[in-house]
Amino acid sequence: RVRPADASSDPAVVQRLSKHFKAGQVFRARVLQVSKNKKHLDLTLRGDLQTEVATGTKVLARLQKLEDPKGGFAASFRLQGGTKAFAHITELFDVWAKNPLRRLSPHAHYEVVVIKPADKSNEASRAEVSLRPSAVSGKALAEDEKRPAKVSDLKVGQKVAGYVVNSNAKGVFVALSRTVTGRVRLQALGEGFVTGETVCKLHPPGELVREAVVTSIDEATGQIELSMNKSGEMITIDQLSVGDVVSGYVRRIERYGIFIKIDNSMLTGMAH
After folding, report:
1. Largest CB tally within 10 Å, which of 8, 141, 159, 167?
2. What single-letter DSSP state applies at residue 150?
3. How far apart are CA 214 and CA 188, in angstroms?
């Protein structure tokens, strides 16, 4: 068997194998893997095939499966030579796409760059790859498309974007990059009272978070706290005085009055 990625280095050929290969053609192939039990051979027709897929190598990859992005791992790939790989949800596109997984097609082939090679000593290890145009083709990045590589790349008050990779009673965890994740506490979601049971439904893995604000950074532990409140700081009842003008939305209507949820707070007021 010759896998598509091992048939040619040209994406156009790989995408239309039936046009470029016919029954009866003769090729010189190299054996990649032998399975004696199954009496099966994996072959390659590529003369440029690299035996080791090192960091920075640009290769053709077949999308095997779209994953549940919980934890950040979003897609599984098969590289040339049969190497298994995965891509983090922040490494699929440069733009912060609302539904990045919907833009990918299972079994299609993509040019990728190896970020981290597989560990040879561990058979279950997979390589890590990026599909981002900036990594694959050197596309220039807009300022808001840059990913923080480490905690020290961030500063308090900075607005950031990312994808939800987990939600539980401790908060909503947002991946700002493949190596940096921040937490939004439940009280900092800007949605009033949210329980640990409902937060998973409100903020599922894969959800895009835009313009969260960095509220604290602990470089020693790598912990980053974020806020999704509009100002990054919640209004408390002690900050309000008679005559202040606030904005909000109608939460409930009763015969004795209207309940209004105050924006950027956990406060609800009643208008008689």
Report:
1. 167
2. S
3. 11
- Residue for token digits 């979003």? 74
170: left (phi over 0), alpha (psi -120 to 50) or beta: alpha
Listed residue (58, 136, 123) closest to 84, CA to CA: 123
**How many Å is the Cα radius of gyration of the chain?**
25
Measured CA distances, 200 to 55, 72, 166, 212, 213 (Å): 35, 15, 8, 18, 21
Name beta bridge partners: 168. 171
Stated as kind and residue range, the H or E segment containing 184 is: strand 181-184
- Residue 60 DSSP SS3: strand
pLDDT tens digit string along 156-165? Answer: 989 999 999 9
* Torsion of Cα atoms, 157 then 161 then 165 then 167, to 10°: 50
DSSP 3-state of 103: helix
pTM higher than 0.85, yes or no?
A: no
